[in-house]
Amino acid sequence: MYKSCSKCGKIHPKNYQCNVGRTFTGGDERKLRSQYSWTKKSEEIRERANHLCEVCRDKGIITLNNLEVHHIEKIKDDESRMYDNENLICLCQEHHKQADKGFIDKNYLFELAKKREQGF
Predict the structure, then answer these.
(1) CB–CB of 70/96 below 8 Å?
(2) Cα separations (Å) of 97 from 2, 63, 100?
(3) Which end of the chain has a smaller Cβ tally under 10 Å, C or N?
């Protein structure tokens, strides 16, 4: 049996939970990111990247503002890589959004993180 959804207007199976309009609270990932150890690791990655967006720098652009540290391989997929320097990359907000949506290739991000760790 199907019903019309009051949230999105589409037709769903009767017991389907529509996620339109729901806010993601972060769950266990948010708890891990609120720890002091993550704060220190995040600052370390920013310092190693010279407080620059690594994608912008690769394109010859200098971006110093609104920097965030991105997990290339998501925490929910592999929690053991949360503090792995080659899984972390410093990005501006725009590139972080693009990376989260999959618009920036993971292999490219891994390559940039590896270059940073080798000192290039």
Answers:
(1) yes
(2) 34, 15, 5
(3) N
| Cα–Cα dist 81/73, whole Å | 8
Q: Which two tokens stand for residue 78?
A: 């592999």
State residue 86 phi and psi, 5-degree precision: -80, 0
- Calculate the dihedral angle through the C-alpha atoms of 120, 83, 90, 50, rounding to the nearest 10 degrees: -50
65 three-state secondary structure: coil
What is the bridge-based pairing of β-strands 88-92 and 67-71? antiparallel
**What dihedral angle (degrees, nearest 10) is formed by the CA atoms of 44, 49, 50, 54?**
-150
Q: Each residue's pLDDT tens digit in the chain (120 positions)?
A: 888 888 888 888 888 888 777 765 555 666 676 678 889 999 999 999 999 999 999 999 999 999 999 999 988 888 889 899 999 999 999 999 999 999 999 999 999 999 999 987
